[in-house]
Amino acid sequence: MKLLRVLCLTAFLSTPAYSEVEVLFHPFDPTLEKAALWISEAQSSIDLAMYNLDVTDASPVIRMLKSDAIQSKISSGELKVRMIFEGYKGKSHATKLALGLEELGIDLRFLKSGRKVHHKFAVLDYNTDQPRVISGSANWSLGSRSNYNENILFMDDEQSMASRFQSEFNLLWSASEEVGEELVGNVNLFVPEAGEDPSLQVTMNSDNFRFSGLRVTRKSYDEGYVLTRELVRAIDSAKEKLEIATTRFKLRPVYDAVLRAAARGIKVQLLVNMDQYDPYQDRKKWTLPECQDPYLESCSASMNFSHFLDKLEFDGHENVEVRIKFFNLDPTAYLSRQMHSKYLIVDDQTVWTGSFNWSYSGEYSHIENLVKIQGGTHVEAVAGFNRDFAQLWDLNRSQYQEFKGRMIDALKNDKKTDCKFEPMALTFTEIDILLRMGWWYDKELKDACE
């Protein structure tokens, strides 16, 4: 059986790509194995901007970087590897990981500007005739691969995208501080203008900021919100339907754009992560604030607009459905099986996806990206997102009644049961019912949980 799995994986990774853009999804596809394969094939340079990754031998990426073949290339100077690293557990932990990576010959820097590098991308062999780019919503971690819903794009021989991502890396590299010894320094500095490919484009919110030495400051108000404005333009372009799978839905301009779409008859399906659920009693008392200018910080900061789409009456309300990826009756456990993709599909034909969390902090506290993919050219990539959304939208809904029955039995008969379950795509009302069942029997719901 183990041999069969190895043969299947080898066949998967060896299959010729029929498109220059391939999308793989967590928790189903061997994303880290594919990234490791591309690293093994790198000839001259690898530049990574990474919010987080696992630095253990269990990771296929780390095993490849430690391999004799790659270490020989690094030691000889044939292959130069650089990384801008953030680390989500804080700087002391990130520094420890970074120093370990430097022992592998990887030159590490931190952006110490008050902004977090939330990218998850790699540019390979930029200065060759076949550059490659890897980018997506997923951190290169084993937990993400096994438990989260994510996507990663593999873009082969895409010169225009390589040029944009390399320019972004160079910008951040020049504004970052060395962690230990300078092992590589400045390479790939010459980034010639590449022809624009309308079928595959990327927007970076680094355009929101001014870079001066190691300082990164916000530009004036009217120059900002570059990622938010890109999403708004995408939503306003819809002719038939919008399918949205995003960790968060916390931007007032995007909310307003969805209202406009619903009012003109566009069918909208929105799926968000479990932490976007707010209890029924809270939702009852919260009101949508008045906003003369939706691009003001106060109109988006600390807001969750998904439940307003669900509860408020507005023109076209019947065209909007909201579901939540839900997997634990303990609301604090929302990280364990996250819906961590952040993508929008317009009319089954065009996809916007990337690292960008749809929030004010994503726009102004993080450094992010948003990739646009046109289905006319990249048919298989867009079809992959269509299939992923269809699967997510009805995720394990057939198990809802069985789980509810099991909880009722535990509450009625003073039993214990597991309050964790396989993720389901549920409505606010369906979750309300689960979390209020203890009231029916004058008990605390947690008392029935193992």
Write a brief structural summary.
With 450 residues, the protein is of the alpha+beta class. The protein contains 15 helices and 20 strands.
Write the layout of secondary structure elements.
Layout: H1 2-14, E1 21-26, H2 31-41, E2 45-50, H3 60-66, H4 68-76, E3 80-85, H5 91-102, E4 107-110, E5 116-117, E6 120-124, E7 132-136, H6 142-147, E8 150-156, H7 159-174, E9 177-178, E10 200-204, E11 209-212, E12 215-218, H8 226-236, E13 241-246, H9 252-263, E14 267-272, H10 280-285, H11 306-311, E15 320-328, E16 342-346, E17 350-354, H12 360-364, E18 366-367, E19 369-374, H13 379-393, H14 400-412, E20 420-426, H15 428-440
Parallel strand pairs: 2-3, 3-4, 5-18, 13-14, 14-15
Antiparallel strand pairs: 1-8, 2-6, 4-9, 6-7, 7-8, 10-19, 11-12, 13-16, 15-20, 16-17, 17-19
Helix pairs in contact: 2-3, 8-9
GO molecular function, one term: phospholipase D activity
Catalytic activity: a 1,2-diacyl-sn-glycero-3-phosphocholine + H2O = a 1,2-diacyl-sn-glycero-3-phosphate + choline + H(+)
Protein name: phospholipase D
Can you describe this structure?
Helices cover 34% and strands 23% of the residues. Residues 1-19 have low confidence and may be disordered. It has 450 residues and is α+β, with helices and mostly antiparallel strands. An eight-stranded mixed sheet has the order 1-8-7-6-2-3-4-9, sandwiched between helices. An eight-stranded mixed sheet has the order 10-19-17-16-13-14-15-20, sandwiched between helices. Helix 5 links the parallel strand 3 and strand 4 (107-110). The longest helix is centred in the middle third of the chain and has 16 residues, at 159-174. The protein has two domains: 20-181, Endonuclease Chain A (Endonuclease, Chain A), CATH 3.30.870; 218-398, Endonuclease, Chain A, CATH 3.30.870.10. It catalyses: a 1,2-diacyl-sn-glycero-3-phosphocholine + H2O = a 1,2-diacyl-sn-glycero-3-phosphate + choline + H(+).
